[in-house]
Amino acid sequence: MSYISLYRKWRSQTFNEIVGQPVIVQTLKNAIETKRIAHAYLFTGPRGTGKTSAARILAKSLNCKEGPTPNPCGKCETCDKIKNGHSVDVIEIDAASNRGIDEIRDLRERVRFAPLEGRYKVYIIDEVHMLTSEAFNALLKTLEEPPSHAIFILATTEIQKVPPTIASRCQRLDFSRIKLAEITAHLKKIAKAEGFAAEEKALDLIARSSEGGMRDAISLLDQAISFAGKEISYDSIVTLLGTADEELLFGFAEAIAEGNETRVLSLIKAGVEEGRSMSQVARDFVMHFRNLLHLKVGSGEALELTSEYLEKLRDQAKKFTLPRIKEAIKALSRAELDMKWHPHARLVLEVAIVELLETKPEVAEQKPAVKVSDRPTMAAVPQKPVETPSQPIVKPIKKDGVTIERIKHHWKDILESMKQKSLSGYVSLSEAEPIEISSGKLVIGFRKGFSFHKERMDDAKNRESLMEAVREYSGERLPIELIIAEPAPAAAAAALTPSGVAEYFGGRVL
Ligand SMILES: [Zn+2]
Fold first, then answer.
1. Residue 300 belongs to what domain range?
2. Which of 45, 215, 313, 392 has the fewest CB atoms within 10 Å, counting from its CB?
């Protein structure tokens, strides 16, 4: 016998089997019992929350030989045909693949004919928001004057894309994300019935990563069984999902709390070497700090976590101030975004973390020193943080003394000096090289595709550090101009290549 996926095997066949949608189940059952069936329904909600299953069950309820009944028998010919998608009276249209007007025109032609086997003709249009506007217009005409034997069930994950003229003619039912505990319990039931041993933590992790969708959760369980066999451990799910495990998450946050740069970077290295995807790891880090944030503001219950896990989080949250947690979330989520288009995803994450650690919380809270005597006109004005101007006015000095050759000659030394002053500046600058001295400014060129590094370099602190490093080797504080150099300047030294940077971090280029 051919293999049947767990999802198909365990798809709900009755209203009572639908998990996590009690209001919808009650509404539909009542409608059938009181014979107040709407001519058109609009099922909306996230993917995998039971919309299509509910639509098929409704079709069975209406056409079952024993019906109409809220509890279709599941045994009669009609129920069987609907279950297997063979009923001529239940027509499923996938709007995602049939966007065309032809299908809806066809529907308009045929909807007039009475059902052949059952009492109703049931049209299930999945992902209805994908229809073209012409198709929507054709559908609207049918919905305006539906034959009494026709029932329409429109399903969508994106309600905002359904024209109001259509939506207003339907009874709308909102499917919600299924609660974590309900998904876990259902997975447990399936695993038990199928004869698999699964760790509670493993099922919890599957449920968590399916984000409230039962279909994804069951598909993941199926994959886990193919991957791990009859015994599903937490570790095997971690490997399967490429997600960060508990140890990595808590270790990472611990190292951030301690300001331990070396440990943070080695944890990232270890995380990647175990085969995780960089963006998944970044996302997991963001979620971990989000959890800490909830604990900090006292809304930990909203997290749907085990009490043991919550306790662990609570302990860790004590090591952070609220502003520090917010800083970490900002830095990590920005890195997660930047990583999407950047060729060196890991570098982006590393730079973000190094920068985060460079802004020590106590430093961040200090007000910048402003010497009133330097700025007499500002004395009456409330103090604002003073930003270093991007091109500070330098004392008029002779520019003849310093040449671009001299800067180039000492570039490696300047980079070394940068490393001491600002690690993130150093990492960014490693993708650049000095081009020329023009109008008294030192022009630094970043290779094409490294605008991320340029952007990172372009903050007051990094500019200041670079000017200082340049002064150490040239005797002058030259204003800095950052450009994207085109064509790409050839990287002269190994330290200027991505692999050079990776080497510095003790890793490989991603
Ligand atoms: Zn039946």
1. 263-269+282-361
2. 392
Whether residues 14 and 158 fall in one domain: yes
Rounded distance from Cα 119 to ligand 1 centre (Å): 12
**Alpha helices (H) along 274-373:** 278-296, 307-317, 322-339, 345-358, 361-365
3 state SS for 431-446:
CEEEEEEECCEEEEEE
Dihedral angle at the C-alpha atoms of 471, 472, 474, 477, nearest 10 degrees? 10
pLDDT number for residue 332: 93
Give the span between the Cα atoms of 240 and 229, in whole angstroms: 12
**pLDDT for residue 389 is more than 70:** no
Q: Considering the domain boundaries, does residue 392 fall inside one?
A: no
Interhelix angle for 460-474 vs 411-421, to 10°? 140
Looking at residue 21, its pLDDT comes to 94
| ipTM of the modeled complex | 0.98
- Give the C-alpha separation, 110 to 107, whole Å: 5
Question: How far is the centre of ligand 1, averaged over its atoms, from the C-alpha of 331 (Å)?
Answer: 57
C-alpha neighbours within 13 Å on the C-beta side of residue 16: 6
Which of 150, 174, 198 corresponds to the end of one domain?
Answer: 174
Give me the CATH number covering residue 438.
3.30.300.180
The total of structural domains in the chain comes to 4
Distance 103 CA to ligand 1 centre (A): 29
20 CA to centre of ligand 1 in angstroms = 24
Per-residue model confidence (pLDDT) at position 100:
65
pLDDT tens string 27-36:
999 999 999 9
The pLDDT tens digits for 99-125 are 667 788 888 888 888 898 889 999 999
Distance 64 CA to ligand 1 centre (A): 4
Give the Cα separation of 391 and 433 in Å (integer): 19
The answer to whether residue 251 is domain-embedded is no
For residue 88, the CA-to-ligand 1 centroid distance in Å is 15
Query: Of the given ranges (189-198, 319-328, 361-370, 409-418), which has the lowest mean pLDDT?
Result: 361-370
Residue 491 C-beta-side C-alpha neighbours within 13 Å = 17
The CATH number of residue 229's host domain is 1.10.8.60
